[in-house]
Amino acid sequence: MNARLKAAIQHWSYVAPLLQPARNAKEYADLVEALDAALDAGGADETNPFARLADYLGELVAEYEAKDKMPPAATGAEALRYLMQRDSLRQIDLPELGSQGVVSELLSGRRDFNARQAKVMAARFGVTAALFL
């Protein structure tokens, strides 16, 4: 087996997350951190060995940012639907809002977010609480 391939296999659990598109805000933040580290290591210089990695990470970051542009939401329900879709979440994944019935009512607009729910969702998704109120 090729020595470089063997080394890649040994370190794959560390390398793989750097090569995959971000699926949520945490993975996006990890990619941004990795891009910053690659640039700090000299990746901005095209002759540096990290230049190709920095380019690739930059593409992954840009891809997530392009798809993550939240449309202007008229309601908290629309914002929550968008964020749930973005992060591949279901109603059951949001127990901090209340029961599935409560989440359903929030999503349908039959119930308004209270201050606690807005604050919890803001912290979870990294947005302002005003988005839900």
Q: What class would the helix/strand composition place it in? A: mainly alpha
Count every beta strand, where a strand is a DSSP E run of 2 or more residues. 0
Largest sheet: none
Estimate the global geometry from the Cα principal axes.
Answer: elongated
Mean pLDDT: 88
Radius of gyration: 19 Å
Low-confidence stretches: none
How many angstroms does the end-to-end distance come to?
Answer: 58 Å
Number of helices: 7
Give the % helix. 55-70%
* Topology as a string of helices (H) and strands (E): HHHHHHH
Q: Which range does the strand content fall in? A: under 5%
Query: What is the domain tally?
Result: 2
Descriptive key words:
133 residues; mainly alpha; 434 Repressor (Amino-terminal Domain)
3D structure, described in words:
With 133 residues, the chain is an all-alpha fold. It has helices at residues 3-10, 12-19, 25-43, 51-67, 76-86, 100-108, 115-125. Helix 3 (25-43) runs antiparallel to helix 4. It is elongated.
Question: Can you lay out the helices and strands and say which pair or pack?
Answer:
Elements lengths: L2 H8 L1 H8 L5 H19 L7 H17 L8 H11 L13 H9 L6 H11 L8
Helix pairs in contact: 3-4
